[in-house]
Amino acid sequence: MSTAPQLVVHRDKELMAQAAAARLITRIVDAQASRGSASVVLTGGRNGNGLLAALAAAPARDAVDWGRIDLWWGDERFLPDGDPERNVTQARAALLDAVPLDPERVHAMPASDGPHGTDVDAAAASYAEELARAAGPTDHGGVPEFDVLMLGVGPDTHVASLFPELPAVRETERTVVGVHGAPKPPPTRVTLTLPAIRAAREVWLLAAGEDKAEAAAIALSGAGEIQAPAAGAYGRARTLWLLDAAAASQLPRALYPPASA
Ligand SMILES: O=C1O[C@H](COP(=O)(O)O)[C@@H](O)[C@H](O)[C@H]1O
To answer: Which CATH fold would you assign to the domain 5-244?
Structure first.
């Protein structure tokens, strides 16, 4: 069942990143208090990295028990390990290298020089197996219970590496697939599918900047998920769009919250 999107609009992208980081800290601390650990899916891109950098700078980051968190990725650019364009490389630089994570619980997607070589479909299948191994008997659809799954919204409405009209966004069975011919470089990628995304408790979509305004307006105005993948991303308990005023500038008035900070 889809959860109706809730919108929070912040003044600018810096404030949005700081507020989202504060929100994430609270969510992780709550999950650790109630279940002993937390499970978070990271996104790449400017907004995702902005949030991680804001989290690194937040004094409250020490409220998180970093050894009791599983980190997963929504997508990855299929490049050699350590490539500066890989989402995990950028996440390490923004936050992960600065906090005491358990390396066993940092679940990076495979690289193109890893055990599967350049076979992106085999790499995707192995990440699906890793997710399935982490899933418990009561979890949904072959993935562990993600407390929060974050997605940066691309200017073309892509989320993770689900691009409009490409086969990956039509996937209904597998949790992870290889992407060939992505319109945004690099063309070869690994991505969670919509069924895997929808198994998360909370899905947060991040959109800051004028170049996201049209995408946000399309995705939130009833577009189909094949044409606008962001429209098909929702969580089981909550779907939250975190925007700045520039990204919200083309939203229909009916959607724009009257009082936002
Ligand atoms: O390539 C990607 O792009 C999207 C959005 O990135 P942005 O820089 O336009 O915010 C990102 O969500 C995805 O993880 C990444 O691989």
So the answer is: Rossmann fold (3.40.50)
